[in-house]
Amino acid sequence: MNALRARLEASAAAVREWCRTRDDAFLLLALLVGVLAGGLTLLQGAAAHALQAWWYGLDGADSRLSALPRLDVRALLALPLFGLPIGLISLAARVRKRQLVDAVEANALHGGRMSMRDNLVVSTQTILSNGCGASVGLEAAFAQMGAGTGSQLGRVLRLRRADIRTLVGTGAAAAIAAAFGAPLAGAFYGFEIVIGAYTPSALAPVAVAVLGASWVRTAAGSPLAMLPAPADVGLEFKDYALYVLLGLVCALIGVAIMRLVTLIEQAADRTGLPVWLRPVAGGLLLIPLALVTPQVLSSGHGAQHIDLTAQAPLQWLAILLAMKCLASAISLGFGFRGGLFFASLFTGSLVGAVFAGALALAFGHPPLDPTAAALVGMAALAAAVVGAPMTMAMLVLEGTHDFALTSAAIAAVLVASTVTRRVFGFSFSTWRLHLRGADIKSARDVGWIRSLTAGTMMRRGPETLPADTPVADARQRLPLGAATRVVLVDEAQRYAGIVVLADLYADRVKPQEPVSGYARNREVALAADADALAVMRQFDSSQSDELAVVDAGGHVLGVLSERFVRKRYAEELERRQRELLGERTAAGD
């Protein structure tokens, strides 16, 4: 038994070394992540659809909840009933006093490390939320489980921080590719949302992962999610100008939706409702909207196909747009779990259709094809909300195979993304993290900065003197040249300033005076947990070469020099740049 265990451990070590040092092995690992993520995506989608089919009586795999003509109140009781277990799961998760970490936060702050327990919680809540009809998408579950698969494999193999982050991105990319049957859209999603940059080192792993996920979808017999393309799109300069204007409109509506979700969430907090009851209350509020039309339910894929192929009245489209925005905001604000990605696709198509209809009224003739405008609006609003412009443009291309329409979509999504970033500064995922106190605007790796703290960089055991020591005694104890600076402490051994030793030997100094009279930065010190950026800002504001590092009680822990901080920061920054360029070494992270 011991020999077998030793042999297994040796094999595992060989596999780890192989994946850490060889690019071809890492590509095989990325392919495995893509296949697993694709399979998990199809399983989660099937589970949510089966739940809807069981409760609402849907016929066939292609039948969609949002495409039903009407629903009665008894069927819609699923919303508050399923809200109860969703709320109880949220309550149980809060007992740990730790927020659930998604792929964006994991890659930005934690080096790609995700908890499988968190992943299962998010997946279960999202499937229940979408399965009962709440106005949320399944992408939260898809991306969470796909990214979590990459993270788990990377941690088991003890890969470097940069490699784990790449696997998290490949897993999320593969999940989105499998969800839509769109490998290009999935790949760009991985780069723009989860990895946070287009990095040479991640190109090949993401590519093989999305192809593996697409193969899983094809092998499972799932049809491609084709979009109804317009018959003929002949674009002129004026058409591009109108689509740019549509991108601007989508940006403003996207910002309004994200703020509406926050306002409703804050209103729910003010009601004093316990966490476990909020989804129940949200479900009750959704029932009147769903009685008007089931199109406000779920992510809206079925309703989107109906509204893109049928020329609905402009007034109805405008009302449906307002209702869908409100339903999504209520669902998320009251604790249903899910994302705005899939829901914003339907909402954006409504924005585009309303925009085309309004232009037709204004000009007396339709200057834009309504279907084309709906598809461009779909991409632009999703880009504003999700923060992934090229992902949405590629989704239009792979869904319609129309290059002319894709060029219009690219113009609109770039405007929508730029305006949203300028006006609001966040995508929906990073906005939610910002409200929790994590001030990040993308999945770009900033966690290493937080680990580079004053406490880890300081020089311990600095020379100290009581602040009331006479200058003459200080000179006797510390001859000129013995040290550069001395840290002063008071009678309680708390920090009281720093004295430059040369100042004590100046001609104007009176030997009988205490050294505290010549102290600098008496009120300026560094907290041990301050990161490198905060430390450098403190050096700039104090215009000092060295600062003391103190604990919460003000006791001196060490001394840190500006030169050393900037040197360590430059070294770490260069190291991360090498990782982005794909320079692999045998040394671990």
Map the helices and strands.
Elements: H1 2-21, H2 23-56, H3 73-76, H4 78-95, H5 103-109, H6 116-132, H7 139-156, H8 161-180, H9 183-195, H10 200-219, H11 237-271, H12 278-292, H13 301-309, H14 314-333, H15 341-363, H16 370-386, H17 389-400, H18 403-423, H19 428-435, H20 447-451, H21 454-457, E1 459-460, E2 464-466, H22 471-477, E3 485-489, E4 495-500, E5 526-527, H23 532-542, E6 546-550, E7 556-561, H24 562-580
Parallel strand pairs: 2-3, 5-6
Antiparallel strand pairs: 1-7, 3-4, 6-7
Q: What do you see in this structure?
A:
This protein is mainly alpha-helical and 589 residues long. It folds into three domains: 14-226, Orthogonal Bundle (Clc chloride channel); 237-435, Orthogonal Bundle (Clc chloride channel); 449-574, CBS-domain, CATH 3.10.580.10. 64% of the residues lie in helices and 5% in strands. It has helices spanning 2-21, 23-56, 73-76, 78-95, 103-109, 116-132, 139-156, 161-180, 183-195, 200-219, 237-271, 278-292, 301-309, 314-333, 341-363, 370-386, 389-400, 403-423, 428-435, 447-451, 454-457, 471-477, 532-542, 562-580, and strands spanning 459-460, 464-466, 485-489, 495-500, 526-527, 546-550, 556-561. The strands form two sheets. Strands 1-7-6-5 form a four-stranded mixed sheet. A three-stranded mixed sheet has the order 2-3-4, with no helix packed on it. Strand 6 (546-550) and strand 7 form a beta hairpin. It is elongated. The model is unreliable at 585-589 (pLDDT under 50).
